[in-house]
User: Fold these one by one.
Assistant:
Number 1:
Amino acid sequence: MRGVAEARPPLTAGGEAEQWERHARWWQEHFTNGADPEYEEQIVPLVVDRMGVLGGSPRPSRVLDLGSGEGQLARALSRLAGIEVTAMDRSRTQLGAAAARGEEPRLLVGDAVAIPAASGAFGGVLACLVLEHVADLGGCLGEVARVLRPGGVFVAVLNHPLVVTPGSGWVDDHMVDPPEQYWQLGPYLNETSTLETVSEGVRITFHHRPLSRYVNAAASLGLLVDHIDEPAPPPGFVAQSPGFSALETLPRMMILRFRRS
Ligand SMILES: C[S@@+](CC[C@H](N)C(=O)[O-])C[C@H]1O[C@@H](n2cnc3c(N)ncnc32)[C@H](O)[C@@H]1O
């Protein structure tokens, strides 16, 4: 989901909203409705499991899918008995597709740093591949903590912050004998905003932060990690790059589950 990184000064929030409006259909075409093996085989089932049942805790009855896109995860969560889901996104094009694709969930236009919902309105919040697109992390986490009731859960799916840093990528070196495949790591500790070319003609801003920034910013707001997943890439994804066996040794995703104290 990430491509060539290009160092740029941070864009304005308005510019970033416009990027997602412009590229919503690209996202829908390539990553939703069964088009992407990572979502089908890994992200959707893991999110449903982590939000629904982990640790024997009761399933939240009201869940907010923050930055829901066209709503694929909100629809999957809606299918769990007893969960009422609200899909919220800043992009009207994404929510238009969500409306066309299902009667559930409820749809809400809103910004992750000013969620239009009452304090304590939700028992669960999900943000799947969204936080790395939000410039104001503290503002967003503050809103998540506000709309979560005490004891509620926040599930955040991230491009793995340590592995998928800007400037990282596979090197397939045939100049050495024997040839080597290895993952080149970018400057992990530098907090950077980069405009990345994720596909031809599709440029999206990513805000990179070390893992400690996410965990410590959340903890300062009473959101404490109670589970982490670092799954190996699923078979359908690995099959897209035959011969690249090293692919299976690094997690592309990290799923953090926080509980509101
Ligand atoms: C990579 S897509 C992920 C969509 C969905 N969560 C999924 O996993 O299918 C990121 C989404 O976040 C939304 N987004 C980015 N920044 C946002 C913000 N500040 N407030 C609300 N939505 C935002 C974009 O419009 C886009 O739909």
Number 2:
Amino acid sequence: MTDDGYVKFQVEHRPGTVPWTAALAGLDGVRTELFDLGMIGVYPNGIGYGNLSLRDAGDTFIITGTATGARRELGPDGWCRVDGFSAEDNRVRCSGPIAASSESMTHGTIYQALSRVGCIIHVHHRRLFDAMLAGSDPRTAADVPYGTPAMAAAVAALVRAIPEPAGLFAMAGHDEGVVAYGPDPAAARHLLLTRFLASSGALPGIAGVPPAR
Ligand SMILES: [Zn+2]
């Protein structure tokens, strides 16, 4: 631990495979849709953003691998399973063809806090993020630094205060960061895209999402 209390993220990765299920292939499709909308990608500095996950058994989950933001489609080699984690120690244990990113801590925290959540989508989007902060949308505090045990605790407290096992919130201390979650990918996607449309005016061509009010 350094002087400012920041606990460095540590990942213990074991090479292996992740079963390519219909559910995972479906989530890969949702990811491509979000990639095309600019919610997943790579910043000019080369840092990727955005990640999706699906609950596996217990609090384990399958999540998009680290540094995959440039790829429009991932397929079986772009995902890994998080087998265990400690938000307090900022440490993740994972297996698969690729390692998990530090953002997997946020996902794990929500799965642990809400047993009925089955899918989590984390994206970055300037306009959506700004609209959420300007509105009354749930958010973690701006002074909670991202990728820290403090952020994990803030996320757990926030999602426990949202009544349904589905929700959408902004991370004010993580620029452009938005998280949607629900019992399944369709529910999380619907929440995210509905708010996205409301922030941008109706865009045609997004199937299954009602027009903005
Ligand atoms: Zn992020």
Number 3:
Amino acid sequence: MERANTMLNQINLNQDFGRSRKVCVVGAGRWGKNHIKTFADLGVLAGVVETNQDALLSLRKQYPDVKLFTNIEHALEHDFDGFTIATPVHTHFDVAKAIIESGRHVLVEKPITMKSTEALELKRLAEQNKVNLMVGHVLLFHPAFRKIKELIDNGILGELQYVYSNRLNLGTIRTEENVFWSFAPHDISLFQYLTDSFPQVIASSGAMIIQDGLHDTTITTIKYPGNVTGHIYVSWLHPFKEHRFVVIGSNGMIRFEDSMEGKPLVFYDKGVVWQAGKPQARDGEVSHIDYDKTPPLTLELKYFVDHLDGTPVEIANAQNAVEVMQILEGATESLMKGQDQTTVKLQKYAS
Ligand SMILES: NC(=O)c1ccc[n+]([C@@H]2O[C@H](COP(=O)([O-])OP(=O)(O)OC[C@H]3O[C@@H](n4cnc5c(N)ncnc54)[C@H](O)[C@@H]3O)[C@@H](O)[C@H]2O)c1
């Protein structure tokens, strides 16, 4: 991953990142529009596939030189170098499979598929067809998280002890995947990045309020080797947006507030020391850390374009996608065991 960070820094400096490349975006909905705009700004947008005619009409006005299609088969007849998929998750596997089998590079939005076995199949297909398969774990490209990783890797934080993420909002309520599948792929991909390992144990619980069978809020605890623990709290039934990420190390602590004004990244020179056999809080300086404010989606899509020459991708690659899917499934298994098997029942004393 250190090498991957160096490569990412090089992208920032490299202005000539492949304007001769042609990219086609599949799905022009809420998020796909961001792919389209970013690729247009990068000068590589050449095609869009969208099943909705109204959406196509408005794209025709906005991007008169871009080829538009209503299905992927027609788009595959053209000479695009790579595709990104921003359609609903249940379509990802079939669309990605068709693209990979045509020998073209692809970036699939998160969650990559509905099952880890499908993600594994796409990974193998991509290897056989010698194409890059990337997943839209966009926060792996976020300069603030790359700074956090730097502080862990160069020992400033000491031993990594605890990580948590709150991703809460009254946002898009999906009907095919629950809130954990919708929001937490980002957090899991970050936990994987920061710990450089694979979890040993996962436990998840939550509440289904709006739709039967789909959780609206979940709290998940993940244990990594070396006694590193973390939790992920996600909800789309929450009165305000809170994207908070906290990292606790033996020598210091970090807080990143992605939903606050100015998106502060703060280092706390605080911790716990042992004095006369007792743990004591150690209070130290609080300092703000600067980081590059380039939007992570721009960095992610630039990285994808930069690898359309077939150089293997290292960040948000197929292996990362499969691992995140396995962790999503582990959490789902725990969620579905439900309250009966994982919790202790309480009864109030009679008064
Ligand atoms: N990386 C991120 O931060 C992020 C953020 C939001 C959404 N997403 C992901 O992006 C994907 C899309 O989410 P969204 O919110 O934009 O959904 P959306 O429903 O707003 O848009 C999906 C679009 O795909 C079109 N579509 C459906 N099937 C198609 C097909 N077979 N071929 C072509 N077009 C098709 C629909 O008409 C629609 O316009 C999801 O996987 C979601 O999880 C990622």
Number 4:
Amino acid sequence: MRNSANEYIPALKYNRLTAFYDPLIRWALREDTFKKRLIEQAGIQAGQHVLDLGCGTATLTLLVKRNYPASAVTGLDGDPNILRIAAAKIAQTGLDIRLDCGMSFDLPYASESFDRVLSSLMLHHLTRANRVRTLLDVLRVLQPGGELHIADWGKPQNAWMRAAFCLVQILDGFETTADSAKGLLPELMREAGFEDVQQTDQFATVLGTLCLYRARKPGVKV
Ligand SMILES: C[S@@+](CC[C@H](N)C(=O)[O-])C[C@H]1O[C@@H](n2cnc3c(N)ncnc32)[C@H](O)[C@@H]1O
């Protein structure tokens, strides 16, 4: 259910389902495979600042820090309930990861403060207007030449994938997921001002076609 004060849809729509999020995603979405692929394509270097946007239970956030211990990793989510789960998971590892509660379209960070922004399964939770605002704010917080790496629902590869995606649409809303079903995310990224926008991979899952994308902020870091 959309939280009217903060404008976010919880991971599985209803707060009481959040506890089941990790096992469901692990089972349904080949989570380990696509999140590892996303991290590989991000090419994170030692010392870089990385933001996991809409980090949820911090599975991707933890994977980044484990794979690149010399990077500075931050996870941000709009849902304080899921951040409690994320914080407990991080505490078990003892890894140094910052967690912030905030909105993707009103990021609580200074301009040009991240080298990489990664985001998994978050953008389809937003209305078109908030998706555009989010892409513009990501552009703001990235360094010139910094990169955005996204894993999210894309244009279904075939009729089976289109039918499977209906379940996500019922859960997360038809309005918020319409751009994903039409494969419009790359176009929205270009319109926001990103360059070198590409779809890099796609995965057939029981809930539809999951796509990986990359995009770069114009300019060169000085
Ligand atoms: C489906 S979950 C994905 C979580 C995690 N990234 C993953 O891959 O497992 C979507 C997450 O985005 C968060 N979210 C939705 N809208 C948001 C917004 N406008 N700003 C920040 N977080 C948001 C939700 O609270 C939820 O944790």
